[in-house]
């Protein structure tokens, strides 16, 4: 994942390291490039929303959530509840949310994202 104030670039990989999709978000919108027909149907805005839930400040998220939902932060985990049901979960593997891997579990849409941030030197090497 590469993130700046004006753009996001996320490359989805299989457990074997094969590219599943590339997501790009900037001023012109959010796009998803996926060789698989099944993955091409995935709404890239949903993935961006999951990243926002995992990384944005809690106060900003709380003010934007519908009234039936609530978000909690417990050490390295963020949880979103719909009434009394857990619908979303993110677990950071380290103390620094921006530098440590995170696992995102979207229980409503039944998928999991594993996000590994790219260091600045790795990002420069790939451009």
Which terms would index this structure?
127 residues; alpha+beta; five-stranded antiparallel β-sheet; four-stranded antiparallel β-sheet; globular
Descriptive overview:
With 127 residues, the chain is an alpha+beta fold. It is 24% helix and 40% strand. The chain is built from 4 helices and 9 strands, in the order ββββαααβββββα. The strands form 2 sheets. Strands 5-6-7-8-9 form a 5-stranded antiparallel sheet, covered by helices on one side. A 4-stranded antiparallel sheet has the order 1-2-3-4, with helices on one face. A hairpin with a 4-residue loop joins strand 8 and strand 9.
- What is the multimeric organization of the chains shown? single chain
Strand fraction: 35-45%
How many strands in all? 9
Mean pLDDT: 87
What is the radius of gyration computed over CA atoms, rounded to a whole number of angstroms? 15 Å
Judging from the principal axes of the Cα atoms, what is the shape? globular
**Roughly how many Å apart are the termini?**
13 Å
| Helicity, as a percent range | 10-25%
DSSP helix count?
4
What's the SSE pattern?
EEEEHHHEEEEEH
The largest pleated sheet is described as: 5 strands, antiparallel
Label the structural class: alpha+beta
What are the low-pLDDT stretches, counting only 5+ consecutive residues below 50? none
Strand order in the largest sheet: 5-6-7-8-9
How would you briefly describe this protein structure?
With 127 residues, the protein is α+β, with helices and mostly antiparallel strands. The chain has 4 helices and 9 strands, in the order E-E-E-E-H-H-H-E-E-E-E-E-H.
């Amino acid at each position: 994942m590469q993130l700046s104030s004006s753009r996001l670039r996320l490359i989805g990989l299989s457990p074997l390291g094969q590219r599943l999709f590339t997501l790009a978000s900037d001023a012109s919108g959010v796009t998803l490039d996926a060789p698989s027909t099944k993955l091409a149907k995935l709404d890239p805005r949903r993935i961006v929303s999951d990243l926002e839930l995992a990384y944005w400040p809690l106060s900003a998220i709380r003010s934007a959530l519908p009234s039936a939902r609530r978000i909690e932060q417990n050490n390295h985990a963020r949880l979103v509840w719909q009434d009394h049901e857990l619908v979303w979960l993110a677990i950071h593997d380290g103390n620094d949310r921006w530098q440590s891997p995170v696992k995102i579990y979207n229980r409503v849409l039944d998928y999991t994202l594993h996000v590994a941030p790219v260091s600045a030197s790795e990002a420069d090497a790939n451009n």
